[in-house]
Design brief:
The chain is an alpha+beta fold. The protein has helices at about 1-30, 35-50, 60-70, 155-160, and strands spanning about 95-100, 105-110, 110-115, 125-130, 135-145, 145-155. The strands form two sheets. The protein has a four-stranded antiparallel sheet. Strands 2-3 form a two-stranded antiparallel ribbon.
């Protein structure tokens, strides 16, 4: 337990230091509004990342980061949509599956939706992409690793907050 506490302390220490520094700068400059304090925060983050030599690594964080990228020593990778998917909507979505009935339809939260291009009584994957601003969800149908079509439904009809 003692070792775990020390690891947490190592992780929290830089953030506590940054928080204390921002509070001191705001107090010294008489800053009382959150928007002004936000400017101090952004300025300190930029200074820390671009100008300050890190006490542990002995390097400026931005320089170290970009050198790691150049040397291919970073865990950052280009985002590639994996096959067979064709859109980020197929990846970053709520997921479910249903079986197409004899009328080429599925039921989803008391809605009956027509499903094009899928054989009867076959299981399909659903990718549901809610848009909270419009209140409409796009429902994308997949069968045998092939895109079969799309439809839309109201978020409230899908009970999205509790999906």
């Amino acid at each position: 337990m003692h070792c775990l506490h020390r690891q947490k302390a190592k992780f929290k220490r830089p953030y506590r230091w940054l928080q204390d520094r921002i509070v001191r700068i705001c107090a010294r400059n008489g800053i009382k509004e959150i928007d002004d304090a936000r400017e101090v925060l952004l300025s300190e983050i930029k200074r820390y990342n671009s100008a300050q030599v890190h006490s542990t690594t002995g390097e400026i964080p931005d320089i170290r980061f970009y050198r790691a990228l150049d040397d291919k020593r970073s865990l950052f990778r280009d985002f590639i949509i994996p096959a067979p998917y064709i859109s980020t909507k197929d990846i970053f979505a709520l997921r479910d599956s249903r079986v197409v009935n004899a009328y080429r339809k599925i039921s989803l939260k008391k809605l009956e939706l027509s499903v094009p291009n899928v054989p009867l009584r076959k299981r399909i994957s659903l990718r549901i992409v809610p848009d909270m601003e419009t209140g409409i969800s796009e429902i994308r149908f997949w069968h045998n690793r092939k895109f079969a079509g799309t439809t839309s439904a109201k978020n409230e009809d899908l009970n999205i907050p509790n999906f």
